[in-house]
Write a structure and sequence with these properties.
Elements: H1 13-65, H2 81-92, H3 97-109, H4 112-122, H5 125-138, H6 144-150, H7 156-169, H8 171-184, H9 190-197, H10 201-211, H11 220-229, H12 236-243, H13 248-255, H14 264-270, H15 276-289, H16 295-301, H17 307-319, H18 325-334, H19 338-350
Helix pairs in contact: 1-2, 2-5, 4-5, 5-7, 6-7, 7-8, 7-9, 8-10, 11-13, 13-15, 14-15, 15-17, 16-17, 17-19, 18-19
């Protein structure tokens, strides 16, 4: 192989290109390896620092929870701030009453409320999440505007955490702002929405009931599902329009909320609906508000062509308070449809009434 003048690579241009590409790849591999080592060392150092912070502060916070916080408190080093806040939030989330107030007092004495407000404005994602949690637990009114700004973030975890903090700070004011927002945001899971709003269930119920009459049809299912998750009692007169709607999603959401006999006639009419999902929810609703005369209607549904309709009708029969095991067995024995008899027997066995 001929080498270029000076011995810095092959003389042939193709071989020279391959040589230098190989050298560049080797250099990049070495740099990547060094970066991995650096990151591993940094992670190890952070973990050791966090462990030292926990070992130092856990006994102090435990003493504070017991009402024996030292006075004055030790100084919190800057590199201890994040591990300390993580520990504080973890402990506070499991405390109630005087113990939680004692722990909050420690955070206020250490000036963590001011630190957290600063973290909300310019911290990294993890810092802003921790800051929102801390300020929510402290019910820090001064952080309201900054937390409100975070609710517009595209990051759903950050936005929902800020919303949770707002609910903690002022449930009534938060309900006025959050309820319409949650009705509009389909990208936020209902389970998360319910978790955030649960502490403001009473004011949210009032706002939601005021919203329902003016909502467009496409928003009604979401609003009704939120009402269901929070166990809001929607008056029968407000449910009437939704139960008579032509949209299956609206009707099924409304049926889930039926809890009073005033809606019974509309529920009965929906037992024959062409959509099986509506018949499923109608059977369940009739099990809650039906009377003895509705036994025959539920028995008729045991022969439905859809398995889930038959199953829910059987469940509704088994859950009726005035049908004991002996009466249910008589109903089952009188059935001439084998599938209807089988589904009722199955549900009776599951409910301990076989």
């Amino acid at each position: 192989m001929k080498w270029a003048v000076g011995g810095l690579g092959p003389a042939d241009p193709v071989l020279a290109a391959a040589f230098w590409i190989g050298m560049a790849a080797l250099l990049l591999t070495l740099m990547l390896g060094l970066q991995i080592v650096r990151l591993r060392l940094a992670l190890h150092l952070r973990q050791r620092r966090a462990a030292r912070t926990l070992a130092r502060w856990r006994p102090i916070l435990a003493a504070a929870i017991a009402g024996e916080a030292p006075d004055p408190l030790p100084a919190l080093a800057r590199n201890e701030r994040l591990p300390f806040i993580k520990l504080w939030v973890h402990l506070q989330s499991s405390l109630r009453g005087a113990a939680g107030e004692a722990l909050a007092g420690v955070a206020l004495r250490m000036g963590l409320d001011a630190d957290a407000r600063a973290m909300l404005a310019r911290g990294a994602r993890t810092e802003r999440l921790l800051a929102a949690l801390l300020l929510g637990h402290l019910r820090d009114r001064a952080a309201w505007d900054r937390l409100l700004a975070l609710t517009n973030q595209e990051d759903p975890t950050l936005a929902l955490t800020a919303l949770w903090a707002l609910v903690r700070i002022d449930p009534a004011q938060a309900a006025t702002y959050l309820t319409p927002l949650f009705v509009q945001r389909d990208d936020w899971a209902l389970s998360h929405v319910a978790g955030v709003l649960r502490e403001a269930a009473a004011p949210v119920a009032g706002v939601l009931l005021d919203l329902l009459p003016g909502l467009p049809r496409e928003r009604l299912p979401r609003a009704l599902r939120i009402a269901e998750a929070l166990r809001v009692d929607v008056p029968p007169e407000q449910l009437a329009g939704a139960l008579d709607d032509v949209d299956v999603a609206v009707v099924t959401a409304a049926l889930r909320l039926v809890s009073l006999p005033a809606s019974r006639e509309r529920v009965r009419a929906l037992l024959a609906h062409e959509d099986w999902q509506v018949r499923v929810q109608a059977a369940k609703a009739l099990g809650r508000v039906g009377e003895r005369a509705d036994v025959a209607r539920l028995v008729a549904l045991l022969g439905d062509r859809e398995w889930w309709v038959r199953y829910r009708a059987a469940e509704a029969l088994v859950e009726l308070p005035w049908l004991d095991a002996a009466e249910l067995e008589r109903v089952r024995a009188a059935l001439t449809d084998r599938y209807a008899a089988d589904i009722l027997a199955q549900v009776m066995a599951e409910g301990g009434k076989a």
